[in-house]
């Protein structure tokens, strides 16, 4: 976590410098010498948000006192690997759920009536995915 904090503070400094350069450059390139405020404020707020995250992570790192595998010099890749859960390697339900989500978003773009069909397919896919271990060979 320590390297992440350092990177976020470095990104904050870079974004503040970029906001200053952008403000001066936009003021210099216009006819009436007025800077372009939208981009200047957006870059400045990005710097502020990076500073918020860097400050928070720095405080958490200091309070916990723990060291992540990425902070150790001789850490292995497997040290940072965590258990994500159990996922069925043979399940087709996630593909069906993704297809139904695609139909819903297509309905938002092309015609709202498609959303109803996509939601119906999504409900069937979600129920099938949740209860796939309660049918067939796995029924209790």
Question: Could you please describe the fold and organization of this structure?
Answer:
With 140 residues, the protein is mostly helical. The chain is 65% helix and 0% strand. The longest helix has 28 residues, at 2-29. It is flat, with a radius of gyration of 25 Å. The model has no long low-confidence stretch (mean pLDDT 87).
Q: What's the layout of helices and strands?
A:
Blueprint: H1 2-29, H2 37-64, H3 93-109, H4 113-130
Helix pairs in contact: 1-2, 3-4
Beta-strand content:
under 5%
Order of helices and strands: HHHH
Structural domains: how many? 2
**How would you sum up the major sheet?**
none
User: What is the average per-residue confidence, as pLDDT, rounded to a whole number?
Assistant: 87
For the record, give the distance between the C-alpha atoms at the N and C termini, rounded to a whole number.
44 Å
Rg, Cα atoms, Å = 25 Å
Envelope shape: flat
Approximately how much helix is present in the residues?
55-70%
The tally of beta strands, per DSSP, is: 0
Low-pLDDT stretches: none
What structural category do the secondary elements indicate?
mainly alpha
Q: State the helix count.
A: 4
Throw out a few tags for this protein:
140 residues, flat, 4 helices, mainly alpha
Describe what is shown at a glance:
By secondary structure, the chain is an all-alpha fold. It has helices at 2-29, 37-64, 93-109, 113-130. It folds into 2 domains: 2-71; 93-138.
């Amino acid at each position: 976590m320590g390297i992440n904090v350092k990177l976020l503070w470095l990104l904050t400094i870079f974004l503040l410098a970029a906001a200053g350069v952008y403000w001066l450059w936009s003021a210099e390139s216009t006819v009436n010498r007025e800077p372009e405020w939208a981009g200047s404020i957006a870059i400045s707020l990005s710097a502020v948000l990076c500073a918020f995250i860097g400050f928070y992570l720095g405080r958490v790192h200091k309070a916990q006192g723990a060291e992540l595998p990425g902070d150790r010099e001789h850490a292995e890749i497997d040290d940072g690997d965590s258990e994500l859960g159990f996922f069925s390697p043979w399940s087709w339900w996630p593909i069906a759920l993704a297809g139904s989500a695609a139909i819903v978003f297509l309905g938002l773009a092309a015609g709202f009536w498609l959303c109803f069909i996509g939601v119906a397919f999504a409900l069937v896919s979600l129920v099938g995915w949740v209860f796939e271990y309660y049918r067939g060979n796995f029924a209790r």
